[in-house]
Design a protein that fits this description.
mainly alpha; 2 domains; about 170 residues; about 70% helix
Length: about 170
């Protein structure tokens, strides 16, 4: 959790430093008037790039808040860790392997190596299709931690504890 706080503090320090740099270099009583036809954007600013940067900043902040809330919630005494299913690790390995195969194929396409395109695309397709097929086949099998309705009993316990805490 301390690591996340350090990252958030570094982001805020960078933002405050940028804002101070902008305000320290401005002297409104000496500044010249700018014509209406002049571009008011910073040098080289593109609306698409600014929009994408803003979106990524918001998504990063939201992710940092979610991770911080999760880390803080784990510190409570009533935290019940959920068992990680084996399917999670298999899907993770499949996803990483598909990403590596896709990048390998992309690099071959950029370099113009046609001999690597067909096997790369085939491997990428097989690994990509294996991910949802494997997940769908495994989701129907009952596991020991599930009750007859198919809902994980530890999740039900978490809901009950949350409801008791709020009441």
């Amino acid at each position: 959790m301390e690591f996340i706080l350090v990252i958030v503090a570094a982001m805020l320090a960078g933002l405050i430093g940028w804002m101070l740099k902008q305000s320290f270099n401005t002297q409104p009583w000496v500044a010249e008037a700018v014509s209406e036809t002049a571009n008011q954007a910073p040098l080289g600013a593109n609306a698409k790039v600014v929009g994408l940067t803003t979106l990524l900043a918001v998504i990063t902040s939201f992710f940092a808040l979610i991770v911080s809330a999760y880390a803080l919630r784990m510190d409570f005494g009533d935290w019940i860790p959920l068992a990680e299913p084996r399917l999670l690790w298999v899907n993770t390995v499949l996803l990483i392997a598909a990403s590596i195969a896709f990048q390998w194929t992309r690099n071959a396409a950029v370099r113009g190596v046609a001999a690597r395109l067909r096997p790369g695309l085939l491997l990428t397709g097989v690994l990509t299709i294996a991910l949802p097929v494997r997940s769908r086949g495994r989701s129907r099998e009952p596991s020991p931690g599930h009750n007859e309705e198919g809902v994980c009993s530890s999740v039900l316990r978490l809901f009950r504890l949350t409801r008791e805490t709020l009441v």
